[in-house]
Write a structure and sequence with these properties.
Three copies of one chain form a homotrimer. Helix content of chain A is 21%, strand content 30%. The first copy, chain A, contains nine helices and 37 strands. Chain A has a 17-stranded parallel beta sheet that branches. In chain A, strands 14-17-20-23-25-27-30-33 form an eight-stranded parallel beta sheet, with no helix packed on it.
Chain lengths: 452, 452, 452
C-alpha cells in the first residue's frame, strides 16, 4: 500500500437531545453500539490507523473503540478542535486522513472509498463528502465551481444564490496527511460561539494554494443521530439493508419489515421466516430452516432443517442441531438439542443437553437453579420425558429411558429405566358435589366479608 | 376569563359504514373511545361548558360524555339541525361556541385555540377551520377574499374557478355565542336532501352584516372517521404522535412502528422498548426499565430498573417494584412483585403478593381460582419457590421458606420451613423397553382399528 | 356462452434469482402457492379450459395445477416457445385465449375480463395488457396509434421518441383462438438470444391484416416475481387487499399492517383484532370475537363472542365454540372447546374434547403423545381441572368432576368425582436455613472446581 489511510472518528459530542445517561455513540443499532458500525465501515478500508476522539472521562466510549486508541478532547470547542486532538496520534502518517463521525453510522465503506480515491486522483488537500438534500435548509452548502470546492457556507450565512444550492455538507472529510497539522492549526475561533470549525480547512487549504474537492454520496447515508427519533430512523435504515441482503441471499420473509436482524446475523438460503422474528446478536441459521412467527433468538446456532416457533425463545449458548423442533412457548437457555430432538410445547430447558431424537414433553422444566448455583441436566439419546416433568439438576437421564408424566426427577435415571416421581391417582366418587358446595359457600362468605 | 368558551360536540351520526353494533364515536383509538379524545382536546381549552349532541336512544354515547350533558337530535336532518339541538344547553352563554365533531378526534387543542383566538381578534361572528387539501375533490371549498370568508361552496356546486381552490372546509366552526341562536335559526332546508346544513351560517352571518373568517390547520388533523379503514388510519396517526412524544422524552424504541401506546401511557427516560410491545390503558413505567420484544402490559406500574420480557404479559392491578425481572411466557394478574423479585420463565401469578428478592421457579402457578372464588397467594421476602410448583390459594409462604420443585402447596408454609408436596422418585430399571413395546403395540392396534 | 375463454398459464421459468430449491411459482403468498392465485383469478372467469406450461420434470408444479392439465416446454426458448407448447391442449378451441404468467399473481380477474371484453368488442386478433409505468426503463413500450397497437418495442431497441412512452407491456395477452396456431407458428428466433418472443405476435397479426389492441391496467397488478424481495412486495400487496376487504366488511384492526391473513381467511363483522395476529390457512371467525395481540391461528373455527389471546396459538383441527376464552401461552391442537369453556393460562390441549363451561386450570397439559401414538382426552361439561394437572390420554373426565391442582390423571374420572393425583404436603420447619447452607456450599465448591 503506497498511501495507507488513517481514520479519525469524532465521538466526543454530548448528545443532550438523547436525554440519556448512556453516551450517544454507545446507543445500539442492530444490537451493536453505534460507533462500532462506524468502526466496522472504516475497518473495511484496511486503514493503517484508526483513532477515536472522545470526551473527558468517557471510559465506556474508549472501551468501545478498543483495540483502537482514543484521545481526549478536553473541552467541547468544535469539530476543528476535536480533530486537532488527534494530531498526536497521527504523527508520522503521510497518507490520507478520513475524518468521520461517531454518530453517523450509515456512511458506507464504498462511499468513503470513493472520497479517498477522488482525493488521490485530483491531488486534493481536502475532500468533502456532500449530498443533494431534499430540504437543504439545515445544512452548510458546498459551493463548487469547475470541479473545485470553493467554500462551505453555513446556512445562516448564505446569500440568496447560495441558499438555492442543494448540494450540502455531510461533515465527512478526507485531508492530506502531510498537510493536516498545518491545516487544522490554522483554524481560528473568530465567531459568535468561539468554536473551531473543521469546515474552515477548505478556505485555509485554498488560501495556501491547495485544491479542495467535493464528492457526492446518497443523502440517506448522512443522517446524523441526535435524538431517539433519529436513532429509530437509523435503525430502520440499517434493518432495511440487512433484510435486503438476506433476501438476496435466498431467505424468504413473509413480512420483512417485521424481522429484526443484528449486524452479525447469518442466515443461509431457503430459510423461511414468518412475521415478527427478532434475532439478537450471535445467531447463525443453516439452510432449510423454518422460523415461524413470533420468535426471539439470540446467541444460538440453528441446524439445517430445524423448525422453530411460533413463540419460541432461544437464548445465548444454545445449539440446535439439524431437524430439531422447538415449538410454542418453549425457552432454551445454554441448551444443546441433539439431532432430531423435540421440545414442542411450553417448556423451559436451561443449561441442558438433550440427546438425539429425545422428546421433551409439554410443560417440562429443566430445573437449573437452586437459588445459589446453576446446574446442568443431561438427557441422553432416545429418551422420552413425559409432560409436566421437572428434571432437577444436576441430574442425568440415560439412553432410552422414560420419565413418566408429572414426575419430579431428583436422582439419575439409568439407561432404559422408567422413572416415576408422582403420586398414584386416587378417585373419590360423588365428592365433587359437596366440594362445589363448600367452595361456593367459601366464596359467598368472602363476598359478605368484603361488603362489610 | 372574559369570554369563556362553550364546546358543542356533534355525535349523532349513524356510522353505517362501520358495519358495527357499536356507535361510531365509541370505537376506541389508543384504547379510549373516539369521542373521549375529542373531549380531552376540548377540555384542554378549559371551556365553561361542553355539550354533546347524540342520537335518540344512544345511552352508551351519553355515558361516554359524562360528566358533560348531552342533548338528543331527534331526527337525522343534517349538521345545522344537530347544532340547533344544543341551543337549549347553551342558554345564557355569550362567549364563543366551538362546534366540533365526535368522529374527528385528531383536531388538536392548539388548532382549536387558534380558531377561537382569530375569531376574537377579527371580531368574527363565524370562524371556520379549513385545510389545504392534497385532493380537494370531496370537500366543500372555502372562498376567501381579502381575509374574509365569503362562502363555502359544496364540491358538486362549484364552478371551474371554485373547483381549483384547494382550501377546504373541515366542518369545525366557532360561532359568536350572542348570535348563535339567530344564525342557526335562519338555516333552511331548501335543498335536494331536505337537510339543514351548518355551513349555511357563513352566508347568513354575512347577509346580516357580520364577519366570517377561515383559519388554516394541517390536513392530517381533519380526517373524519367513517369506516374501519379510516379508523385504522386515525389510530396510526395517534400512535405516531404518542411514539414521537415518548422518544422526545428519552425513550428508545427499536422499531417505533411496532410499539402500541394508550392515550394515558406514561414512560420515563432511558427506558428501552424492543419491537412489538403493546401498552393497554393505565401503564406507568419508571426510568432505566428494559421492555424486551413481544410484551403486553396493561393497568400496571413498572418500577425503576425492571427487566420485562420478551413474551411477558402483565395484567391490570399489577405492581412491579424496582429491579424485578419478569421473563418469557410469564403472566401477572393483580400481582405485586417486591423489589428484586424474579419470575423468569413460564409462570402464572394471579392475585399474588411476592416478597422482595423472592424467586419464582419456572412453571409455577399461583392457583387463584377454585371455580367459584378468587383467592390470594402471599409469598414473603427471600422465598425460593421451586419449578413447576402449584401454590393453591388462599395460602401463605413465610419469609425465607423453600418450596421444593413440583410441589403442590395447599397449607401455609412457616418462615424458614421447607415444604414438600411431591412424591418420591421410584426408578424401575430395564422397564423402558417393555413399556416401549406395549405403547408401540397399542399404537399399532389403534391404527388397525382406524383402517377398518 | 358463445365464446368460452381458454387460459394458458406460463409457469416454466427457472427462477434462479430466488436462490431456492423450490420452483418459483410454488413459493407461497398469503399461504397459497403463487400459481394458485393465478389459477384462482383465472377460474373466476369460468373458462372452458385452463392449461399450464411447465418445465421438464416439474412434478410439484404439475400437482399444483391439478385438476388442470399441464404441458411441458422441453427447452427454455422464450415465451413464444412456451405458449406454442400449449397448442395441442387448445385443439378445437375457437374462443379467446388468455396467456398469463404463473409468476404474476396480482393481475385481477376484473382486469383480465376487461382485456377479453375489449378484444371481443374491437374484434382484435391480439390484445395486450399494458400499464403506465412510473419508471418504464425496464419494460417494452406499447406503441399505440388511433386505438391500434402498432408494435411492442423492447426497451433496448427503442428510439428516443419511443423511450419517452410510459405505456408499458405487462406480457399478458389475449389471442383469438382461431388464429393462435398460425400466429404462434409464425414467431421466429432471429435475435441475439435465439429465443421465440411472444410479443412478436403483434407484428405478425398486423402483417396478416388483423387488428391488435392494448388495454390499460393498474401498474400495481403487474409486478412479476423474480426475487425474494419481489416476493415480499407481492405478499404485502396481497395482504393489503385482504386487510382492506376485511375492514370494509366490518372488522376492526388496531394496526392492519400487522395482521397477516391467508387467502381463505373468513372473518365476520364486529370482530376486533389487536396488533400482530397471524391467520394461517383455513380459519373462520364468527362475529363479536375479540382476538387480542400476538396470536397465531390456523385451521380453526372460532365461535361467536369468543375471546382469544393475547399470545394464544390455535392449531389445525381446532373448534372453538361460542363464548370460549383462550388466554395467554395456551396452545390448542385438534381440540374442541365446548360453549363457554375456558383455558386462560399456559396450557397445552392436544387432541382433546373439552365440554361446555369446563374450566382448564393454568399449566394443564392434555398429554396426547406417548412416543408412539396420539390419544384423545375427553373432558365432559362443567368439569373443573385444577392448575398444573396432566391428563394422560386416552382418558375421560366425567361431567361435573373435579381434578385437583397438580394431579396426574391416568385413569378415567367418573362424573361428579374428585380426582387426586398428587402427594400430600409435608412441611419441615426450620429446614430452609440448613438447606440454603448446603446449596450455597455446593455452589461454592463447583466454582472452585471450575477455576482449577
Amino acid at each position: 500500500m503506497k498511501s495507507p489511510i488513517a481514520v479519525v472518528v469524532l465521538a466526543a459530542g454530548a448528545g443532550t437531545r438523547m436525554k440519556s445517561a448512556l453516551p450517544k455513540v454507545l446507543h445500539p443499532l442492530a444490537n451493536r453500539p453505534m460507533v462500532r458500525h462506524v468502526l466496522a465501515n472504516a475497518e473495511a478500508l484496511k486503514p493503517a490507523r484508526i483513532v477515536g476522539v472522545i470526551a473527558p472521562g468517557a471510559k465506556d466510549v474508549a472501551a468501545a473503540f478498543a483495540p483502537y486508541p482514543t484521545v481526549v478532547q478536553t473541552k467541547p470547542l468544535g469539530t476543528g478542535h476535536a480533530a486537532k486532538a488527534a494530531l498526536g496520534a497521527l504523527k508520522g502518517h503521510a497518507g490520507p486522513v478520513l475524518v468521520v463521525f461517531g454518530d453517523a453510522p450509515l456512511v458506507t465503506t464504498e462511499t468513503l472509498k470513493r472520497l479517498v480515491t477522488a482525493c488521490a486522483r485530483e491531488k486534493a488537500a481536502v475532500g468533502v463528502l456532500g449530498f443533494v438534500a431534499e430540504d437543504p435548509t439545515p445544512y452548510g452548502r458546498l459551493v463548487v465551481q469547475r470541479g473545485v470546492l470553493e467554500r462551505i457556507v453555513e446556512s445562516k450565512d448564505a446569500n440568496e444564490i447560495e441558499r438555492a444550492i442543494t448540494f450540502s455538507n455531510s461533515g465527512v472529510m478526507c485531508l492530506d496527511g502531510r498537510l493536516i497539522a498545518s491545516l487544522l492549526g490554522a483554524i481560528g475561533n473568530d465567531n459568535v460561539k468561539r468554536e473551531f470549525y473543521l469546515t474552515d480547512v477548505v478556505g485555509i487549504a485554498r488560501a495556501a494554494g491547495h485544491k479542495a474537492i467535493a464528492v457526492e454520496g446518497p443523502e440517506t447515508e448522512f443522517q446524523g443521530i441526535n435524538s431517539r427519533a433519529e436513532l429509530a430512523m437509523a435503525e430502520r435504515a440499517l434493518q432495511q439493508r440487512l433484510r435486503a441482503a438476506a433476501m438476496t441471499a435466498g431467505v424468504t420473509m413473509t413480512d420483512p419489515d417485521t424481522v429484526w436482524l443484528s449486524a452479525d446475523t447469518r442466515i443461509a438460503n431457503d430459510v423461511t421466516i414468518g412475521p415478527n422474528v427478532r434475532f439478537g446478536p450471535g445467531v447463525t441459521v443453516a439452510s432449510d430452516v423454518q422460523i415461524k412467527a413470533f420468535c426471539d433468538i439470540e446467541g444460538a446456532r440453528i441446524g439445517r432443517g430445524a423448525i422453530i416457533g411460533p413463540f419460541a425463545r432461544i437464548r445465548p449458548g444454545s445449539e440446535v442441531a439439524d431437524d430439531v423442533h422447538i415449538g410454542n412457548f418453549v425457552e432454551l437457555k445454554a441448551t444443546k438439542m441433539g439431532k432430531g430432538a423435540k421440545a414442542n410445547h411450553l417448556a423451559y430447558l436451561g443449561d441442558a443437553d438433550i440427546g438425539a431424537r429425545s422428546n421433551i414433553g409439554a410443560g417440562t422444566i429443566a430445573v437449573n437453579y437452586d437459588g445459589f448455583g446453576k446446574w446442568r441436566t443431561v438427557v441422553a439419546d432416545d429418551v422420552f420425558v413425559g409432560s409436566n416433568s421437572s428434571l432437577v439438576a444436576p441430574v442425568k437421564v440415560g439412553k432410552g429411558a422414560n420419565v413418566t408424566a408429572g414426575s419430579v426427577v431428583t436422582e439419575d435415571v439409568p439407561a432404559d429405566a422408567v422413572a416415576f416421581g408422582r403420586a398414584r391417582q386416587v378417585t373419590k366418587k360423588g365428592r365433587a358435589g359437596p366440594l362445589r358446595a363448600k367452595l361456593k359457600a367459601r366464596a359467598a362468605a368472602a363476598k359478605r366479608t368484603k361488603k362489610k
